[in-house]
Amino acid sequence: MSTSVLSHRSLSNCTRHGNPRRACRVATHAKLRDLSQWRQEGSGTSEPAVAPELSRRAVLKLGAALPALAAALAAATPPALLLAPLPAAAEGPTLPSPAVAAALDKALAKNIPKTKTAVALRLAFHDAATFSAGAKDGGLNASIQYELDRPENFGLKRGWRIIEQVRADLKGTAAEGVVTDADLVALAGAFAVRLCGGPAIPLPIGRPVAAAARQDPPGRMPSENASAAELKANFAAKGLSVQEMVALSGAHTLGSKGFGDPVTFDNAYYVALLQKPWNNTKDAMASMIGLPSDHVLPDDPDCLPVIQRYAADQDLFFRDFSAAYIKMCGLGVAGWA
After folding, report:
1. What is d(CA 241, CA 133) in angstroms, rounded to the nearest whole number?
2. What is the pLDDT of residue 284?
3. Could you tell me the pLDDT band of residue 325, with boundaries at 50, 70 and 90?
4. In a domain, 24, yes or no
5. Of 113, 214, 309, 329, whose CB count within 10 A is highest?
6. Can you give the pTM of this predicted structure?
7. Residue 191, SS3?
8. Which region ranges are annotated with the description Disordered (predicted)?
9. Rounded to an integer, what distance in angstroms lies between the CA atom of residue 166 and that of residue 97?
10. Would residue 126 show up in a list of annotated catalytic residues for this protein?
11. Which of 301, 304, 248, 298 is nearest to 277 (CA)?
């Protein structure tokens, strides 16, 4: 019989035929014929049939014929089939199921009254503010729990206690083991906005959580005394535009910063920015309205047009805030950008 299952004679035939498909058929038929003969010869013995060893000459001929066979196969097979990529893994944000959403709403409503909405929203902002697009680290990952002693996070221990209480109330529900602490930080902020009359923000779940006791790099939170240029640079380093920065700044409408009702989420912040009440020298309390970083925004030529649009159109502010908040809460999560 032939000296191999796929003989060098069969391989050589591939190089003689001009039609690559016919060449492949010739090689295949020779292979099957030789294989059948080998099995027949081995079937008459009690020992398993073993393919004979190739001679040195046969090995050399086989090696010389392989490139021609590869070329013939490539010509006979569409490249798309040879190089077809593996299916991409499913990734990206996923909204909670109705059962999970119901459990979340119940737990969040129990633990976030209107008096705690400002701190819940601030917690989300400060957790996300550690993101750096250049370094590709930080972001909303619940590392805030290890960073509560930083000066910029003063007062946020109350906010983290909300997360712990919500997590405890989710035990035994559809949300247990499905929603991470990082998700809860983002969801608590969104719930606070909705509770105070703001937009309902459809947040996905599945954010990774920082390793135990691992802090994100410090120094990435914008200063309360930052200039407009510094604020724009800080947000740009996180991948956020000027428009998104101004929209997210509207979160200051909640709390005790003096922009309207402290437990109503509306566009009063932008109306106040245009009025600049902190310049009223006749009112001793006026200077306490807002932060220095708020005061600089209406004097910036990039920020002013956005402020004017939001002051005139609350629905537009709600839409843009929702989009910017969703983006902010996905900073640092692979595949969510």
Report:
1. 13
2. 80
3. very high
4. yes
5. 329
6. 0.73
7. helix
8. 1-20
9. 18
10. yes
11. 298
Are 173 and 111 contained in the same domain? yes
Alpha helices in the chain (DSSP H): 8-16, 20-43, 56-76, 79-82, 98-111, 117-128, 157-169, 181-195, 228-236, 242-249, 268-275, 292-295, 304-312, 314-328
Domain CATH for 168:
1.10.520.10
Q: Which of 8, 126, 252, 295 does the annotation list as catalytic? A: 126
For 74-80, what is the mean pLDDT?
Answer: 38
Domain termination residue (choose one: 195, 211, 246): 195
Q: What is the 8-class DSSP label of residue 175?
A: T
Three-class SS state of 203: coil
pLDDT over 50 (residue 318): yes
- Distance, in Å, from the CA atom of 249 to the CA atom of 121, rounded to the nearest integer, reads 12
223 in any annotated domain? no
Task: Return the top range by mean pLDDT from 133-137, 253-257, 266-270.
Answer: 266-270
174 belongs to a structural domain: yes
Residue 82 makes CB contacts below 8 A (sequence gap 6+) with: 74
Look at the block and give the residue holding tokens 């240029």.
229
Residue in 305, 139, 324 with CA at minimum distance from that of residue 247:
324
Are 37 and 54 in contact, with CB atoms under 8 Å apart? no
